[in-house]
Write a structure and sequence with these properties.
The chain is of the alpha/beta class and 430 residues long. Helix content is 34%, strand content 22%. The chain has 15 helices and 19 strands. Helix 4 packs across helix 12 (289-298). It is found in: Cytoplasm.
Length: 430
Amino acid sequence: MDIEELYSRFTECNGLTTDSRHCPEGSMFLALKGETFNGNAFAAQSLAQGCRYAVVDEPQYASPENPRILLVENCLQTLQQLANYHRRKLGTRMVGVTGTNGKTTTKELIAAVLKEKFNVLYTQGNFNNHIGVPLTLLRLKPEHEVAVIEMGANHPGEIKTLVHIAEPDCGIITNVGKAHLEGFGSFEGVIRTKGELYDYLREKGNATIFIQNENPHLNKIAEGLNCVRYGQTSGLDVSGAVLSCSPFLHFEWAAGGALHEVKTHLIGAYNLDNALAAVAIGRYFGVEDTKICHALSSYVPQNNRSQLVQTESNTLIVDAYNANPTSMMAALLNFRQMEAEHKVAILGAMKELGEGSREEHQKVVDFLNECQFERVILVGPEFAGLSASFEHYENVKEVEAMLAAHPVQHCCVLIKGSNSMKLSELPACL
């Protein structure tokens, strides 16, 4: 079945699902495969549970007697082609967002600002890969006026794939840092891959990027693009500065000769750039300055990203969704500058750093020696055997047992680590 005919069937449905456990009435089921599952085997079940059509790529699951099962050559490729076809049909204005750190928060802030004026579709959760981006695009409705699409990558070429599916009209790389080095091979590999967004927009012609003015790596690869610049230098399209951060970011921004002040619910001075990016994009799309300020001051972060959690015993800064050398150092710098009498840092290992893993973890330990926090708890095998005198535990279960026996009380606690370390389970123990 070609993509045009399949799209005609898709328009008869009220959405698309790839999960046979979630089959809304009248939706289309598309069978994907993984290491431990084959979605083709659930095609008939999805129809019985309410789907209008099921799309498969293995002939034994299709039958001429059942016209509701549609056979294609490759379901993953079909998902991506269908999403691109749908995106082109609707012609929605599209903002592409990628970067090493801050892309999810930036995406959320951009969406919050644009919603002050438009009907906005934006990436939910971590749906930012070769499956998540198409699924997001297929949620587009004619009433959506703007879409904000987050794109992640841990190997070269992945952003190139995603931009050719989403076809953004403008875009932002929040920054480039040392993350997923195991997949990228080097920091230069990170820059090249994130830069695939710029490459696409450059080929598209007359496209705009939003760029952090003080970032030398981004400036180096931005040649030939229309740049809207934001940062801490005066005279930019959007300039800003931190006023305070104890603990929430309070900042000012200037554009078009006007100065504005915003008190946010964001933890960390490192969120200034994320907020200024949202300001720059909001103004580009014609959102009024006062509405931009309202959106930024109203936004409350979720999903263990720089969240302030107050328990009966402690004040927690929970940033346990992701960690790499760049974001780890930013979190520690911010924590060191915070005003608190008793500070405890609980840090989980940073994953996917390849051969440089031991060196990067040692750098974190060396910096911790300078910080002189009241207590430091390191979690994960990557911290074992380093030149450090801090407490060390192999996993979060060991930490939970220790905290049950020796509770932490009346402290400000930073919880930072890669998602796979499961440090998000610790607030219940603190």
